[in-house]
From TrEMBL, chain A:
It is found in: Membrane. It comes from the Archaea. Keywords: Membrane, Transmembrane, Transmembrane helix, Ubiquinone. Residues 135-444 form the NADH:quinone oxidoreductase/Mrp antiporter transmembrane domain. The chain crosses the membrane at residues 12-29, 41-62, 82-106, 118-135, 141-160, 172-192, 212-229, 261-284, 290-311, 318-339, 351-373, 394-417, 429-449, 470-488. This is NADH dehydrogenase, subunit N (Ubiquinone). GO terms for biological process: ATP synthesis coupled electron transport. GO terms for cellular component: membrane. It is a multi-pass membrane protein. InterPro entries: NADH-Q_OxRdtase_suN/2 (IPR010096), ND/Mrp_TM (IPR001750). GO terms for molecular function: NADH dehydrogenase (ubiquinone) activity.
UniProtKB/TrEMBL annotation, chain B:
Pfam families: Proton_antipo_M. Its main location: membrane. This is NADH dehydrogenase-like complex subunit M. The chain crosses the membrane at residues 84-107, 114-132, 138-155, 167-190, 210-235, 256-276, 288-309, 316-335, 347-366, 387-413, 425-445, 466-486. NCBIfam families: NDH_I_M. It is a multi-pass membrane protein. Residues 132-432 form the NADH:quinone oxidoreductase/Mrp antiporter transmembrane domain. Keywords: Membrane, Transmembrane, Transmembrane helix. InterPro entries: NADH_Q_OxRdtase_chainM/4, NADH_UbQ_OxRdtase, ND/Mrp_TM. It comes from Haloferax denitrificans ATCC 35960. The lineage of its organism: Archaea, Methanobacteriati, Methanobacteriota, Stenosarchaea group, Halobacteria. GO terms for biological process: ATP synthesis coupled electron transport; electron transport coupled proton transport.
Length: 506, 509
């Protein structure tokens, strides 16, 4: 039965509300005594808020809120928002990443000013992402996307004394503004063709056919461009290495895991609901075939991300490119959708969602390890990582788990999610896409294992000193590592939920 | 449940060892590793299976539960043993324990990590030999590589980084090739299977359910999949010319790790070849009999010749493994009871004897700190026990009757001569037998120069007899080799029972 069955429908947005209120509460705490900041209180509040929102989302998911078992998606505010399984599933990703980042930031921010603002910005960005997951109209998509983006720009540039951080923030902001403009223009073109911004209505209007195939095609292409920016996919990926490298590492973790997932949830919903493949391919002789577009983007993105990552000397930058590569894998979820795919569509999209879920753990963990290394004052190149395992074996073991899991090696969660993704792509008939993915995944082992090699096998430099043992970071990293390992034996609920909620879209 | 218990206990032993202080780790790891030894012997004693696990035989200690429901093909947690895997399980547990003891002397830093990784590797190896679902099997198969990578990379010799990465890259690419080959078979089977359980897949293939996939007809798909899987496993075995990672890995790896590498890890390759290529696609295997037999003979002769050219004792033993594994391939392609059964028996026999040889070289190295043949002579004067066992082991390698190596090679040659897969088979067998002569040549030559003659040593170390705990594992291995040689039926009966169904498919008719 649905939790809170007798309550008003807006309660279904509780995860977003809790996140927003926590953000406001953080500002309030900071306002009460602006001269002294209580880092522990702030980090604790942010973490608890994120966990509470995630807990509610998980409870709703188990209870079946907005899912077929309890009467289908809950539509709110004149169809502007929708709460369904997919939005809840992604909320779980955003909140788990936000919680890990908040815990880790406790140590990272220890000597920084404006701590209250930092946590509040993280929470507001998470609110925006959660709303992105619920958006059912191009207008709310745009607004929530901006709500998620604006705090992100500020977070990237958070280290005001650091030239790299400022530069990264500026680049991120400029490209973000450009892509927002492109995205808004795409929305206006689609509106011109269909006369609606609400996703199901767009689909209904398109089903009746249209003369303006070129305008529609251009609109769809521009909207796809907006998503490519948010998910750091080719061709709007240029900002990602700069932003991830310059940003404070916990922010990089947040952006590369949660923000990317947010881009994907919007893309999944907009393209499957507003532009169903069967409808758009029947218009104008199939010239608006976005499945082909995403297949190309997936191949180019994963290959480019992988090869660029292989040439890096800087671990953080390598991870940034690897994050582009993983966007390519996740794009398979959209690329392998077929007109008459039936259940296979839900399977492959669900597998992509499950991959993003696992990725939320392993990638966040990897960036948080980098945050810890930055905290220790070590450098960012592979050489600077030499021999870390001799000083901090637990953290190094966790990082090893993340690296091998990102490479898709058993026995970790990353193997399972890639396996599910590639297998369901083959079942949809896209065996060549799966083959490209598998080969890329095998090549990626090269650069991931370099980190492992540096940490465990290389001799430490003579003056390798590790000052503190940051408790919060250890908690977050170990949590992420345990999650990454347990997601292999415990993958059944994740993949089952993901594929069920994805199937509801078709 | 006993298989799950066996794997779980070994995992726990690994975890416990990881957190122990370095001083106690070696002793504790030894004590903990006795549990899986006892467990596997208990399994062997209670063993009641018959037939081949993949071909509808009665599987011992079977568990089969659904683990993941994922699209078209369910993933089951399916484990169990038959006459092929049971001996390898016993070999794994015993050899790991002995390797742990032999590591007490040479491993002097980061012991808890070393011994923990050894036990972790053992747990995964047990999984490889017992898993009967492809997904489960592949997880264990890959998970073996990770401990091995660290064991070579952290505790290895001067060029350990190169050797570790070469091993890792070679075997991972091989795994990918094999994976793609197998998965294309699965999709070629289409709706005729509902899970990735190996028995189900093997039986569907026998029933002729293979369809077309990715534009390949069923026949072409079987050939492509066979070649992909063969390449994937051949790297692991290794079959010449895919063997180049092996000498590097062996020479750089610390001795106990070499023991595991030669004794058990190489058997993963031959075991998988038998289970996948030769059981699932027997017609394709027979069609490729000529190139496979050629590769087998090439491995035997080329490996032996390379061994002949080495000055490093460890390299000699490493290359002779390539040669011995060639016999296994020859036995497999023969498709006769004695051929395939002998090949399986050789997996165990070679595991014991190569383990013995590597350990003996290691014991000598612990004392002399050199492995070069030219650096010493007359070592037998100072280390009589070690030298004696070394000589006995070397004769085992050469195929002295009443030792396991003799039984294995005899079975293989008998089976290969009887083979009907192609007319030229006796010719190939005769050529492969010539390998024994070369083996005798290089082993006698190496022993004569290092062990016998007047004592001479170019180093600064005192040469005295090795401590008891160095020699004891050698003695145990020698004893086991003799026991298996005197009564091969300990394992050969169950092996024969398990390989006979394969031959009935493949055409000993």
């Amino acid at each position: 039965m649905t939790p809170l069955q007798s309550t008003p429908e807006w309660v279904a947005t509780a995860p977003a509300i809790v996140l927003a209120l926590t953000g406001l509460a953080l500002l309030l705490i900071d306002t009460i005594d602006p001269d002294s900041t209580n880092n522990g209180l702030l980090a604790g509040t942010a973490t608890l808020g994120a966990l509470a929102a995630g807990g509610i989302a998980g409870w709703f998911l188990i209870g079946g809120t907005g899912m077929e078992s309890t009467g289908g998606a809950i539509s709110l505010y004149g169809d502007a928002l929708v709460v369904d399984g997919m939005s809840l599933f992604f909320t779980l990703i955003f909140t788990s990443v936000a919680a890990m980042v908040s815990v880790a930031s406790y140590d990272y921010l220890a000597d920084q000013r404006y701590q209250g603002e930092f946590y509040a910005l993280v929470l507001f960005a998470a609110t925006g992402m959660t709303l992105m997951g619920m958006s059912n109209s191009l207008a709310t998509v745009f607004v929530s996307l901006e709500l998620a983006s604006l705090p992100s720009y500020a977070l990237v540039a958070f280290l005001k004394e650091d030239r790299g951080s400022i530069e990264a923030g500026l680049k991120y902001f400029l490209i973000g503004a450009l892509s927002s403009a492109v995205f808004a223009f795409g929305i206006s073109l689609v509106f011109a063709v269909t006369g609606s911004l609400v996703l199901p209505e767009i689909a209904a209007s398109l089903a009746e056919g249209t003369e303006l195939v070129g305008v529609l095609g251009l609109g769809v292409l521009m909207i796809a461009g907006g998503f490519a920016f948010k998910t750091a996919s080719v061709p709007f990926h240029f900002w990602a290495p700069e932003a991830y490298e310059g940003a404070p590492a916990p922010v990089s973790a947040f952006l590369s895991s949660a923000s990317k997932a947010a881009g994907f949830v919007v893309a999944f919903r907009v393209f499957t609901v507003a532009f169903p493949l069967g409808t758009v391919t029947s218009i104008g002789g199939g010239s608006v075939d976005w499945s082909l577009l995403f297949a190309l983007l997936a191949v180019v993105t994963m290959t480019l991300g992988n090869f660029a990552a292989a040439t890096q000397q800087n671990v953080k930058r390598m991870l940034a490119y690897s994050s582009i590569g993983h966007a390519g894998y996740a794009l398979i979820g959209l690329a392998a959708i077929t007109v008459d795919g039936g259940a296979a569509n839900g399977d492959v999209l669900g597998a992509s969602m499950a991959h993003l879920f696992v990725y939320g753990f392993m990638n966040t963990g990897a960036f948080l390890f980098i945050a810890m290394v930055e905290k220790w004052g070590l450098g960012r190149t592979f050489e600077d990582y030499n021999g870390i395992a001799s000083k901090a074996p637990i953290a190094a073991a966790a990082m090893t788990v993340f690296m091998f899991s990102l490479a898709g090696l058993p026995p970790f969660g990353g193997f399972f999610s890639k396996y599910a993704l590639f297998f369901s792509a083959i079942e949809s008939g896209f065996w060549w896409l799966a083959a490209v993915g598998a080969v890329n995944s095998a090549l990626s082992l090269f650069y991931y294992s370099r980190v492992v090699k540096a940490m465990w096998i290389e001799e430490p430099s003579a003056n390798l000193e590790i000052g503190s043992q940051p408790v919060g970071m250890y908690v977050a990293i170990v949590f992420a590592a345990v999650g990454t390992v347990l997601l292999l034996p415990g993958s059944q609920p994740v993949i089952e939920t993901a594929q069920t909620v994805a199937a509801a879209l078709f | 449940m006993i298989i799950e218990a066996l794997i779980a206990v070994t995992f726990l032993a690994a975890l416990v060892t990881f957190v122990l202080p370095d001083r106690y780790a070696g002793k504790a790891a030894f004590a903990l590793s006795l549990a899986p030894v006892v467990g596997s012997l208990y399994m062997w004693q209670q063993y009641d299976a018959s037939g081949n696990a993949l071909l509808g035989g009665n599987i011992a200690f079977e568990t089969d539960v659904v683990w993941l429901q994922l699209g078209q093909y369910d993933i089951h947690w399916m484990v169990g043993v038959d006459g092929i895997s049971m001996p390898l399980v016993v070999l794994t547990t015993i050899l790991t324990t002995l390797a742990i003891v032999s590591a007490w002397t040479p491993i002097s830093e980061r012991q808890s990590q070393f011994f923990g990784l050894m036990l972790l590797m053992e747990a995964n190896l047990l999984g490889v030999f017992t898993a009967l679902d492809f997904f489960v099997w592949f997880i264990f198969w890959e998970a073996v590589l990770l401990p091995m990578y660290f064991l070579i990379g952290v505790w290895g010799g001067p060029r350990r980084k190169y050797a570790a990465i070469k091993f890792f890259v070679y075997t991972n690419i091989a795994s990918l090739v094999m994976f793609i080959g197998f998965v294309s078979l699965v999709f070629g089977l289409g709706d005729s299977i509902t899970s990735l359980r190996l028995p189900e897949i093997a039986q569907a293939l026998q029933a002729g359910q293979l369809g077309s996939f990715a534009g390949l007809s069923a026949g072409a798909l079987a050939s492509v999949a066979f070649i992909a899987m063969f390449i994937g496993f051949a790297v692991k075995v290794p079959v010449a010319p895919l063997h180049t990672w092996l000498p590097d890995a062996h020479v750089e790896a610390p001795t106990p790790v070499s023991v595991m590498l030669a004794g058990v890890l190489l058997k993963m390759g031959t075991y998988a070849l038998l289970r996948f290529n030769f059981t699932m696609l027997p017609e394709t295997a027979r069609a490729f009999a000529l190139p496979i037999a050629l590769l087998a003979v090439a491995s035997v002769i080329y490996g032996a010749l390379l061994a002949l050219a080495q000055q490093d004792l460890k390299r000699i033993v490493a290359y002779s493994s390539v040669s011995s594994m060639g016999y296994v391939i020859l036995g497999l392609i023969a498709y006769t009871t004695y051929g395939v059964g002998g090949a399986t028996f050789q997996m165990v026999a070679h595991g014991l004897i190569s383990g013995l040889m590597f350990m003996a070289v290691g014991v000598i190295y612990n004392t002399t700190h050199t492995r070069m043949v030219g650096d010493m002579s007359g070592i037998a004067d100072r280390m009589p026990v070690t030298a004696g066992i070394f000589v006995a082991g070397a004769f085992g390698y050469m195929g002295l009757p009443l030792m396991a190596g003799f039984a294995a090679e005899f079975f293989i040659f008998k089976g290969a001569f009887e083979s009907t897969v192609m007319e030229a088979m006796p010719l190939f067998t005769g050529a492969a037998m010539f390998g024994i002569v070369i083996v005798a040549g290089y082993l006698l030559f190496a022993m004569q120069r290092t062990l016998f003659g007047p004592f001479r040593f170019d180093g600064d170390y005192d040469i005295t007899e090795a401590p008891f705990h160095d020699v004891a594992p050698l003695a145990v291995l020698l004893l086991l080799t003799i026991v298996l040689g005197v009564s091969p039926d300990i394992f050969f009966t169950m092996i024969q029972d398990a390989v006979t169904p394969i031959l009935e498919l493949g055409g000993a008719f």
